[in-house]
Amino acid sequence: MGREPQPDAEFMMRDTTSHPAAYTPQYKTSVLRSPKLALISLQHSLSEVTAPVFSASELGPLDNDLILNYAKGGMPIGERIVVHGYVHDQLGRPLKNALVEVWQCNASGRYRHKKDQYIGTLDPNFGGCGRMLTDENGYYAFRTIKPGPYPWRNRVNDWRPAHIHYAISGNGWVQRLVTQMYFEGDPLIRSCPILGVAPSEEQIRGLIALQDIGAFVQLDSRAYRFDLVLRGQRATLFENHVQQAPEGERP
Amino acid sequence: MSGRREHRHGLEGPRAATGGSALVVRRETASQTAGPYVHIGLAPQAAGFDIFANNFGSVVASDKTRGEKIRIEGRVFDGIGTVLKDILIEIWQANAEGKYAHPADRQPGKSIDPAFRGWGRACTDLETGVYAFDTIKPGPVEGRNGRRMAPHVNAWIVGRGINLALNTRIYFSDEAEANASDPVLNLIEWEQRRRTLVAERLDRRLDSGAAVYRFDIRLQGDDETVFFDV
Fold it and tell me: What does pTM read for this prediction?
């Protein structure tokens, strides 16, 4: 009782009411890509509570600077912004050394991707991806160009609000999360079929970054603040362990 | 007692001020689909451009890695059998001794392989739909309360049309005995579904000598792959 969580502490059961259902007909592609059978619920083993550990040496100095990391002799066009925030777990602990990967379209709403056919123009100086590790406080920051909205084939006049994709790798395999960040005040937020699959107003609000005037870079960039919450990890009390304690630690 | 511990940690962070209770558990941020252009962020070379000096990819083992070299390959199908060409899969596995390269793994008598992290990511090919990982066969890992798990690879699947990442496990067809006593496979009440988690060892080998396993994933429909709520 009262002891700190062990490094192999399991994660709290995922609250599925925080997430969209798999089958969401308003987002048509989900119809054939959603499992129909019940997921099998597992208590955690080492396979679930461990995850790859990343180090700063694996990342380049411009990996979190989307304004410069694909610049080919010029600067990308569009609104310069900083996006920053904290990653915590459900119990309020900062997620340290979490890998945060982001990707987005350019200011015209065009992705640098073989399969994107949108008429919006590619920007020769913008790649659209970045990555970084959170610090000891769970803090991350990157610099980019504000992405544009774009039309997509769902219904004939569906448009995505401006958004940035996130993939986060935390302390355990089951803590991994993929999501999208939206921008406060975007009028397309109300009608987006993809954001609309989020299960509640509260959960939708959690995906909308707020303009953060205090973090503006004067005469340079505006800023948005986006915090994330990943699964909580807690010690198992009493017996029922993820693994046996090594010889020397057994009671 | 546990509530007091949470409260102490819960005071950190920007949203903590709203929580008056010692038992506040925050909601996880909602998942959203990785979308059709997931490659840009996680595998930019597959999207068609080169941006990072160091890319995270599908070659998980090197020549220095201990263990049997294998390739795991397959395709992903939707509910009417369409081969999907825009899916991203990540794997996470133990090394040949059955140990994860993570500090939480304290299994006695097993060592980390410095030439093996055990993590990789692969895309289903934009043209053929085939994904492949070059790795090694993992050893068995101790499961909950000391029950040994059969060798397996954990897989995480995201992409367009998938609102919340899907988790599954890849077991091996030549481990029938270990599979029969695996605590996770045995949790699956419908015995005929267990085979959806077993990669089939093929007759052919790669030029490198690596054995090839085929593991197809069916998101929905007949023989839907078992996915886990973990």
Answer: 0.93
